[in-house]
Amino acid sequence: MHNNDGMANISSSRPSNALKAVLPVAGLGTRFLPATKALPKEMLPVVDKPAIQYVVEEAVAAGLRDILMVTGRNKAPLENHFDRVPIVENLLLQKGDFARLDAVNHASNLADIHYVRQGNPLGLGHAVLRAWQHVGQAPFAVLLGDDIIGEGEGLLPHMLEQQATRGASIIALMEVDPEHVPMYGIAAVEPTSENDVVRVTGLVEKPSKEAAPSNLAIIGRYVLQPEIFPILEHTAPGRGNEIQLTDALQVLAADEKIAGGVYGVVFRGKRFDTGDRLDYLKAVVQIASGREDLGPDFTKWLTSFVKTLG
Ligand code: G1P
Question: How much is the pTM?
Fold first, then answer.
């Protein structure tokens, strides 16, 4: 249904007991220059939606409607995307183009979105620390914008459930090709009695292939205990001279008594990385192929196109 009365925005501001979600979006997107000279990388379209909208939709689908974006310089288009845009809405209404009107309103009514500036880009850990005031003393989720998790995979709900039952911090892990471990935070783990849930005994940010304790990589989903904040406050710059979330989590992982330790949910579903040009292209092709409206025509063309290649 198209909703043009703005009520969803007002009612969404009501306090709720659901956890808050934090989306760090202050990154410069240097891997996509020159496209990201004036456009935030989170606004790059994945088919017909900006990458960040998939992430917001995932949080909302898991029941998290209070979203804090940690932004920085040149991120205004991102903020505008989640605002209403009466001039466009009226135009579509006059034309009777209700399908597009729904799509436009959907983005503006999705969630209750708040913004805080990072001010000084000192790393992911620093960005998360900027959420302390908004989050307070409750567990919260962190979703990184470069990772898109396939719709309906249930990763975040599983993590929220684990957080609630274990009273611990939960990270999403995925097995990666050992050649790729230097691109990720990597976990040392031991099994639990539950399938695909592991106890994290150690974490290292972007180790060499030789130094990596496993090939289980942190993918960009976390449900964290608020005890992470005072730890982040005292975390010294690490890899890349940045304040690393992984280093603060290592403190929690090392001592279960602080805040229940750290557990990992091992994810085996669909994950699309939009942070790198090649992976971004793969994400667009896969997501377009799976779409009900575009998929059949697109895959037909793709199949014949592939045959023309060497
Ligand atoms: C960040 C984290 C890293 C994690 C990765 C997932 O790195 O620091 O631990 O594995 O996200 O995408 P970034 O990709 O921002 O360099």
Answer: 0.93
